[in-house]
């Protein structure tokens, strides 16, 4: 086991359920300094686990463990933190409660403050649903978060994004072996089906037109090889109930649902962190237009589009060009004098 | 029964199978004149039947039945022409053979020439897979087709479009009730799942962002109402094997596979008809970029983008603005002096 677990005890969730004996799995990189002012939080994405985030951490990179203390908290439902697959009866499997972005961040805040005694974060950043948690950090703890760089995500799940996820969910649950969550074995036909549905969304038209999957750094032998090797492989190693729990969190992500705010517009105006929002130029479900709308409402925020043909996976750490582009922006943001 | 059936006899298909006692269902509008020079062919689209095309036909419109003789041939596999659902054993259901765009058009050509004795077509036009048949008409019978106006379609199915269809297919076939095509009752869970997958593709981000589904002329009460009422309703009335037959035709559509041509570039250069190609500005699976590429290769072709937020369904006849835009282009094209 290459990660730690923080015991949260019984947790009352935003939608009303109590998650008993809740666990937050996390991993840290680098050392927390004596002043406790070099910490960065970097949440995970849909189906991802902490090690899937490591491509953005390294010597000489913005997230340099010789300089910063990087905490990767695993999202609830991802199979390492409390999830349908690892929670005991009676809240296991199909009975695992509904979890919001707000819940995730509130529990991560407890980890950061109670376990480490950290009062300021130099940065929160994340990809996709990790970006959603990033916005939530900035809003929920404005006095604590100096900078944010959400990439390929949004503060509120758009209706089109919601519909895309309806298709993913419908494909997974069309497999009768799913059995409304009470499966004896994973519904592998459904997992493979959801992977094929996802394939057209995760990368864009140009990515397929130019057969980028067949070239370095991916280098798949054919389109079918890519669909099986990359896409089916990605979801077959996950648990169906876990995927559905995170999907619910994603579909219902809404920064405007934060207590004390009257909708997402009001919430965005409440962000105090220095902000760079980075959409992928051809992201099909987090399109740049949605981030433009946000950028205009967050005080002082900058929008910086990741150019190129990798769609949503511009933020997935799969190619060195996009990684360098994101890393450069992180360096620039970390070098800026924060307002507090 | 509001249509006619043309008996084709035994037909050898492009991929080798023989479709025995093949039937082509069609409907005509208006009268063929004595010179037989006022005919228009207007093929159907994925899952559509002839009556689904009628929105583009009417007094005062380009396709005016008081002036033109409009023939709508039903695509093979659509449930009216020879299809898995209506072909007797042994070529019924899961044994129905693979049908290409080329096959469809060759049989439509027999209808037009053998049944009606027509030697020249004023126009071929169609939406989506109907557009694919339109390109094929122009290439297969260059001396016969004066003008074409394919809208929201392509001459060759792109790899991204292929992947989108993989997702649709995977969702439908994840339902065990499908039983590899030997179902006793329709796999309704799979049909509903494929409908939800399709929903995010058929309309674009802006369409959902602005909740256009909730306004006139659609006027659905909620997003869920639209997903069930429009999308699930669209596919639940179809037969699963029929849908899979047409999906195969779509995935393998390639004008460049026409005998005598060395790929799609060569094929496009062989089109002699006066051509206006009309993509929907925000069509997610037939994006304008793919039509631009074609337009540059068809001698004298014009590209005219249908503006707006209706995605692929800009060509679906659902709103009067897009209908008028397409109708205007058809009028303009029909008014142009053809080269022969």
Arithmetic mean pLDDT of chain A: 98
The overall number of domains of chain A is: 2
Q: How much helix, percentage-wise, in residues of chain A?
A: 25-40%
**Which class do the helix and strand fractions of chain A yield?**
alpha/beta
Strand content of chain A: 5-15%
| CATH topology term of the largest domain in chain A | Rossmann fold
GO molecular function (chains A, B): acyltransferase activity, transferring groups other than amino-acyl groups; hydrolase activity
Keywords (chains A, B): Hydrolase
Organism (chains A, B): Saccharopolyspora elongata
Active site (chains A, B): 128 (nucleophile), 283, 312
Describe this structure as you would to a colleague.
- The structure is a homodimer of 340-residue chains.
- With 340 residues, the first copy, chain A, is of the alpha/beta class.
- Chain A has two domains: 4-157 and 252-335, Alpha/Beta hydrolase fold, catalytic domain (Rossmann fold, 3-Layer(aba) Sandwich), CATH 3.40.50; 161-247, no CATH class.
- Chain A is built from ten helices and eight strands.
- Chain A has helices at residues 101-115, 129-140, 159-173, 188-202, 205-209, 223-236, 240-251, 264-269, 288-295, 320-335, and strands spanning 4-12, 18-29, 39-41, 69-73, 123-127, 147-151, 274-277, 302-303.
- An eight-stranded mixed β-sheet of chain A has the order 1-2-4-3-5-6-7-8, with helices on both faces.
- In chain A, strand 5, helix 2 (129-140) and strand 6 (147-151) form a beta-alpha-beta unit.
- In chain A, helix 3 packs antiparallel against helix 4 (188-202).
- The radius of gyration of chain A is 19 Å and the shape is globular.
- The first copy, chain A, starts with a strand and ends in a 5-residue tail after the last helix.
- Chain A binds chain B through residues 158-160, 162-164, 166-167, 169-177, 189-190, 192-193, 196-201, 204-209, 211, 223, 227, 284, 287, 289-290, and chain B through 158-160, 162-164, 166-167, 169-177, 189-190, 192-201, 204-209, 211, 223, 227, 284, 287, 289-290.
- Chains A, B: Pfam families: Abhydrolase_1 (PF00561).
- Chains A, B: Keywords: Hydrolase.
- Chains A, B: This is Alpha/beta fold hydrolase.
- Chains A, B: One of its GO terms (molecular function) is acyltransferase activity, transferring groups other than amino-acyl groups.
């Amino acid at each position: 086991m290459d990660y730690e677990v923080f015991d949260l005890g019984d947790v009352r969730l935003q939608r009303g359920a109590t998650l008993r004996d809740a666990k937050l799995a996390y991993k840290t990189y680098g050392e927390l300094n004596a002043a406790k002012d070099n910490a960065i939080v970097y949440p995970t994405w849909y189906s991802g686990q902490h090690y899937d985030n490591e491509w953005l951490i390294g010597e000489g990179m913005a997230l340099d463990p010789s300089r910063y203390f990087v905490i990767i908290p695993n999202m609830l439902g991802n199979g390492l933190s409390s999830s349908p697959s690892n929670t005991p009866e009676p809240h296991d499997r199909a009975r695992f409660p509904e979890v919001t972005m707000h819940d995730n961040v509130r529990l991560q805040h407890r980890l950061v403050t109670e376990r480490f005694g950290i009062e300021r974060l130099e940065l929160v950043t994340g990809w996709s649903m990790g970006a959603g948690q990033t916005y939530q950090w900035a809003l929920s703890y404005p006095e604590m978060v100096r900078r944010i760089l959400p990439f390929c995500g949004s503060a509120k799940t758009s209706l089109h994004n919601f519909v895309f996820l309806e298709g993913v969910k419908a494909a997974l649950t069309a497999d009768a072996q799913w059995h409304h969550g009470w499966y004896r074995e994973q519904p592998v036909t459904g997992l493979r089906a959801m992977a094929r549905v996802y394939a057209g969304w995760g990368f864009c038209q140009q990515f397929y037109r130019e057969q980028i999957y067949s070239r370095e750094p991916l280098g798949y032998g054919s389109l079918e090889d890519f669909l099986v090797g990359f896409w089916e492989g990605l979801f077959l190693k996950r648990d169906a109930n876990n995927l559905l729990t995170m999907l619910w969190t994603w579909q219902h992500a809404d920064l405007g649902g934060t207590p004390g705010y009257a909708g997402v517009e009001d919430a965005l105006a409440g962000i105090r962190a220095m902000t760079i929002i980075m959409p992928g130029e051809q992201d099909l479900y987090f399109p740049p237009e949605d981030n433009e709308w946000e950028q205009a409402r967050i005080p002082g925020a900058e929008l910086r589009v990741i150019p190129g043909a990798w769609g949503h996976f511009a933020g997935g750490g799969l190619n060195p060009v996009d990684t360098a582009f994101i890393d450069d922006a992180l360096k620039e943001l970390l070098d800026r004098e924060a307002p507090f």
